Every structure is written in structure tokens, then in C-alpha cells.
Amino acid sequence: MTANVICICHQKGGAGKSTTTMQLAGTLGLRGHKTLVVDADPQGTAIRWSASAADDKPFPAQVAGMGAAGAKVHREVKKFATDYDFIIIDCPPAIDSPVPESALLISDLALVPCIPSPPDIWAANGITGLIERISGVNEGLKARLVINQIKEKTLLGREVKELLDNFGIELVIAKLGQREVYRHSALYGTTVHYFGKQATDAIAEIESLADEVCTILGVHLNEQK
Length: 225
Hints:
Elements: E1 4-8, H1 17-30, E2 35-39, H2 45-51, E3 62-65, H3 73-78, E4 86-90, H4 99-104, E5 109-114, H5 118-135, E6 142-150, H6 158-165, E7 170-171, E8 176-177, H7 180-188, H8 200-217
Parallel strand pairs: 1-4, 1-5, 2-3, 2-4, 5-6, 6-7, 6-8
Helix pairs in contact: 1-8
């Protein structure tokens, strides 16, 4: 068994990398996939998220801190490749760190969360160049853009749509809404599934994202246990 490695990356902070990482990892864990989150961001958001879980209801994926690994994170992650179904790497902003480049070297899929506004899309352009460059070395690397924090009952503006069409990375169908429950999940060390009917829309969003990720990677679509 060799893990499917997913790199969650962006050029700058605030795009929702840790939220996407933890919700996706937890969802895959709830489906029965053995999943490891590699917290490669020195801020340690994923570690803190997992540590906030109740003792009797731990976060449904393992979390390992590798914020100090720097440009060698790819070497450290390889040590776990035969122990997990999925390894998801939560990267610090690419503009400040060599970690995303290192992580992309061993990744099967790069997910780029992006807030649907022109400044945020412009800021994400740098990661596109990095992904293209690493693809010359890691020829199996796939990449997808994930729209995050989209407001309910609003349509993407024409300007934003044009920017996304020319972004250079294919857009996934699933979109994550601007919902308080995503932030509340971090407080309780869990995923949106914990909140049941109060989080119906959010659960549907993250389940759809997990379905797409599995399809892209050719993984059987396990249902939540």
C-alpha cells in the first residue's frame, strides 16, 4: 500500500488551507480510510485543531507536526507512505516557505483553496507557476482549484469567472460556503459532521469535495461509516 498524497497549498495565508485540510482529512477518516494530516505550517493550526477534540471523540485522522522539516518535508513524509491510505499536507504560504515546493515533489494531487475575489485569485497565481514547474519533475502531479468561503445564494461575478477560467488550474465542482460551522469545527476538534442537522449544507459540500478527490485519484468512494 502506498498513500495518496495531497498537498493543500496557496501563495498566501487566509485562503482556507487548514480548514480544507482538516475537513477533507476528517471526512476521509470517517469513511474508513486511514488518513494522516501532516501539519507542515509552523503555526501548527492542524495540531491545535486535533488537540481540541474531546478525549472520548478524537479527530478522525492522525495529525503529525512537521513544521520544522522545511525543504525536507518530502523526505519525512515518505517514511509514512506505506502506513496510510491518504496523507494530506497542510502547507504554509508558498511566498514565505520552501515547504510547498518540497511537498509537491511527492504529491499526487495539489488542492489550491481560493476565496472568490479578484485580489485572492491574483494572489494565487504564484502557486500556479510553482505547480507547473514541479510538474516537470513530478509528472504524475494533478492540480485542482477549490472555491472557498463562497456566500450562499450568490453567483460568481463575471470578472471572477473570467479570472478562474484563465487561472490555469481546473476547478472542482464542489464549493465550500462561508459558514460559521467550519470555524466551530476547529473549536471542537472535529469536522462539520459532528453538528449533524445543523450542518447539513456544509456536510454535503465537504462530502462532495471528498468524492471528487477520490475520483481524481481513482480511489473507491467509501461512504461515511
